[in-house]
Amino acid sequence: MKLLHIDSSTRANSISRRLTAQYIEVWKKNYPGGNVIYRDLAATVIPPVTDDWAATFAEPATLTPAQRAYLSTSDELIAELLAADTIVIGSPMYNYSISVPLKAWLDQIVRMGRTFGISAGTPVGLLGGKKAVVITTRGGAYGPGSSTAPLDFQEPYLRAILGFIGLSDLKFLHVEQQMKPEAEIEFASAVAKINELAQ
Ligand SMILES: Cc1cc2nc3c(=O)[nH]c(=O)nc-3n(C[C@H](O)[C@H](O)[C@H](O)COP(=O)(O)O)c2cc1C
């Protein structure tokens, strides 16, 4: 079993980092022979996609050395994703959405012919059969029915884009109120849920 562990908070001592680490600790106990690949998206700057991204639509055999070099980050990130049976993503909410490092990663891994294809004119995700867990951390709360629920552009976006590449076995754990007095209670409750999720 292989697990891809992704952190995307820009803070070294972040709540989402602590919680993904908790998931990994439990998972390792449950899968003693398992392999964890760690990708800290804040540790290196993932290049933004530019006009050269058009190379992803070219026939692979026709790529120039410069185009191959340009795509090498994407190749490496996609290889990590394809190798994993389970993907665990720590995602802090920034301005009602995701952090820049996570968006940069998504732009590099959503790639024609690698993580999605086109069948009869319709996009088809190629990552079926994998399990994905997203642990979000938020200063406020955005639960269903609340007045702030419409401001949650994080879960709907991640659900859409991860579903687009075929990650339909997708679970979210929202750890909210992290800038409120309830933070510690929420955190403890999240740890208990992670102990279940990481089975
Ligand atoms: C730049 C920035 C923007 C933020 N925007 C929001 C927001 O829109 N809604 C919210 O509930 N919390 C927001 N927060 C609070 C974070 O979601 C919260 O501190 C969370 O714990 C961050 O995750 P981390 O501890 O893993 O870094 C923001 C924090 C930062 C640094």
CATH class: Alpha Beta
Query: N- to C-terminal separation?
Result: 12 Å
CATH homologous superfamily? Flavodoxin domain
User: Total helix count?
Assistant: 6
Strand percent estimate: 15-25%
Radius of gyration: 18 Å
The CATH architecture assignment turns out to be 3-Layer(aba) Sandwich
Backbone shape: globular
Task: List the secondary-structure elements in sequence, H or E.
Answer: EHEHHEHEEEHEH
**Are any ligands bound, and if so which?**
flavin mononucleotide
CATH topological fold name: Rossmann fold
Task: Give the proportion of residues in helices.
Answer: 25-40%
Q: Strands across the major sheet, in which order?
A: 2-1-3-6-7
In quaternary terms, these chains amount to single chain
Note down, in words, how this protein is organized.
By secondary structure, the protein is α/β, with parallel strands linked by helices. The chain has 6 helices and 7 strands, in the order E-H-E-H-H-E-H-E-E-E-H-E-H. The chain has one domain (2-197): 3-Layer(aba) Sandwich (Rossmann fold), CATH 3.40.50.360. Strand 1, helix 1 (15-30) and strand 2 (35-40) form a beta-alpha-beta unit. It is globular. The two termini are 12 Å apart. The model has no long low-confidence stretch (mean pLDDT 97). It binds flavin mononucleotide (FMN). Residues 9, 11, 14-17, 92-96, 137-140, 178-179 line the site of flavin mononucleotide.
